[in-house]
């Protein structure tokens, strides 16, 4: 079982209100999607539960949604069916994408929502970025969002318990993150994520998963993008902010 197959069941408790609605999720990227031709070919290569893919399809784009987790792909398919959206879904690791799609197939590739740190070390990350780059046509753009790992690492290993219950589908869930921060940047780090729900009869239901991740510094990401033929066109990186968006253009 790959990471996220358990969390896929309770993923809505882990995402912000703004990401729950497909139209709102897609609107968060309006500054880049407005640059696309109508009928653009776009790929969401870590589609999770599918809200962004469905939102982009709602804007008239030709969407493909992929993810390494079969359970996430099934959730995306379910959301597409419920909302009447129609697009191709494929279960694929980033490094497998080029087995499924030809070079220069897409105008825009999205890798958003703290996904890239799951690529295994610098080698895995560059291989993932290389696949994404190959799939972009010249002038196409990769849109990537990331945690600010400089900040995350500075806080060290810790337990983060949400200070209020998250309500989804009429049920409350308590969200817990346990961070295992390794001494060195390049070492495997781990995040254990749990969603705890209390049933009407007082019994407690816990869904949790231990995920591996390999953090990177912003400067490293910039040079890795450059090494695979992607030029950073826009970045919101700020050393004090929790996360950032990078838009990189295929040269
Ligand atoms: C934090 S979730 C983000 C999901 C979605 N993009 C969002 O913003 O809500 C990370 C996603 O990356 C996927 N993922 C992790 N490793 C991957 C890999 N090597 N190739 C493709 N997808 C991967 C996970 O299955 C998961 O759906």
TrEMBL record:
Matching InterPro entries, A to Z?
Answer: Gly/Sar_N_MeTrfase (IPR014369), Methyltransf_25 (IPR041698), SAM-dependent_MTases_sf (IPR029063)
Which Gene Ontology cellular-component terms appear in the entry? Answer: cytosol
CDD domains on file: AdoMet_MTases
**GO-annotated molecular function:** glycine binding; glycine N-methyltransferase activity; identical protein binding; S-adenosyl-L-methionine binding
A Pfam family that this protein carries is: Methyltransf_25
Q: Give GO terms for biological process.
A: methylation; one-carbon metabolic process; protein homotetramerization; regulation of gluconeogenesis; S-adenosylhomocysteine metabolic process; S-adenosylmethionine metabolic process; sarcosine metabolic process
Q: Where is the Methyltransferase domain?
A: 42-140
Matching Gene3D superfamilies: Vaccinia Virus protein VP39
The protein's UniProt keywords, in alphabetical order, are: Methyltransferase, S-adenosyl-L-methionine, Transferase
Can you say what this protein is called? Methyltransferase domain-containing protein
Question: Which species does this protein come from?
Answer: Pedococcus cremeus
